[in-house]
Write a structure and sequence with these properties.
The chain starts with 15 loop residues before the first strand and ends with a helix. It has about 325 residues and is α/β, with parallel strands linked by helices. It is globular and about 45 Å long. The relative contact order is 0.14. It has a single domain, classed as TIM Barrel, CATH 3.20.20.330. An eight-stranded parallel beta barrel has the order 1-2-3-4-5-6-7-8, surrounded by five helices.
């Protein structure tokens, strides 16, 4: 059931939280092997459904106990054609995996949504290439063709929207927006930044958001910044401008390391969960519409708990 597709509740001023990083949590805290960093592969393994189901529950309870809403994000960041092929998945296999990922979230929503927390279901889209490096810069047309199958699959499920993570150049973002428009499903666009606050392509956040909005007639429902520490991009937001009103979500890394340093690291850098919470709350001063908070690489329910505590205190 497409419960909220035509009226996304996060387009209000109500607070929403989401999860941390499923991939680093499963790998570093639970010892699961995730080839190609692909959490969706768990859905093909014995017991995988239960592993993922149990992963979400601490976050769901955190939302319910704090009286905030929740975005259930699917584990499909890598569940697109090129990444799936590396793991032996066919196009049809991936369609089934993407559908199964949403069914899992529908089960959780059915069992746990109540008056304390509205739960929105999002189909997660990842970049075709490496999110940290512009290794496969596409035209907008090529990006639309590449992402259309996954997005149209989500459109035929109970997903309320699709959310693209760790995008590093605007052409791919434009293609994803167009594919979502064709599939008639709302889309949120998430850009990642380097330590200088710019996209890995070298483009500034303001220019990236403005470009996508201008080309797609303000196609994204909203924008997100993810997979970067707040100190990497806060100074850019502080400059202000109408574009900052388009950012409603942040899912930062707890580590202050650069993407290159994280790629080379052999141990997980979980940073300081309390400090991360405080910095996320501080972003509310420069992002007037910011109301969706979660974590990215290295984060888990501890980080999201501190973020929740800090932002709910700020919102009072």
């Amino acid at each position: 059931m497409k419960t909220y597709r035509n009226h996304l509740p996060q387009l209000s001023n109500e607070l929403f939280i989401t999860d941390g990083c499923v991939e680093t949590t499963l790998m570093f805290h639970h010892g699961y092997d995730l080839p190609e960093f692909a959490a969706f592969d768990c859905l093909s393994r014995p017991g995988g459904y239960q592993i993922l189901h149990d992963y979400y529950l601490p976050y769901v309870e955190l939302a319910r106990s704090n009286g905030v809403n929740f975005v259930l994000e699917s584990v499909t960041w890598r569940a697109s054609r090129d990444w799936g092929a590396k793991l032996g998945y066919t196009t049809q296999d991936l369609r089934e995996i993407n559908r199964a990922s949403i069914s899992l979230l529908e089960d959780i929503r059915r069992d746990h949504e109540d008056g304390r927390a509205t739960m929105v279901i999002s189909g997660c889209i990842g970049p075709r290439g490496d999110g940290y490096q512009v290794t496969e810069k596409m035209t907008a047309e090529a990006a639309e063709t590449y992402h259309l199958d996954q997005i149209s699959t989500f459109s035929n499920t109970g997903a309320d929207l699709v959310t693209a993570f760790t995008l590093n150049h605007t052409e791919e973002a434009i293609g994803i927006v167009r594919a979502a428009q064709t599939s008639q499903i709302p889309v949120a666009i998430g850009f990642t930044t380097e330590t200088d606050g710019k996209l890995p392509s070298g483009q500034g956040l303001a220019e990236a958001i403005t470009t996508v909005d201008n080309v797609t007639n303000y196609g994204p429902a909203y924008y997100m910044i993810n997979c970067a520490h707040p100190t990497h991009f806060a100074h850019v937001l502080a400059r202000g401008g109408s574009w900052v009103h388009r950012i409603q979500a942040v899912r930062p890394n707890p580590s202050t390391k650069s993407h290159a340093e994280l790629d080379d690291a052999e141990e997980l850098d979980a940073g300081d969960p309390r400090e991360l919470g405080e910095r996320c709350a501080g972003l509310m001063e420069t992002l007037p519409n910011l109301n969706i908070f979660g974590g990215c690489c290295g984060s888990d329910h501890r980080h999201v708990e501190h973020i929740t505590n800090a932002v709910t205190a700020m919102a009072v």
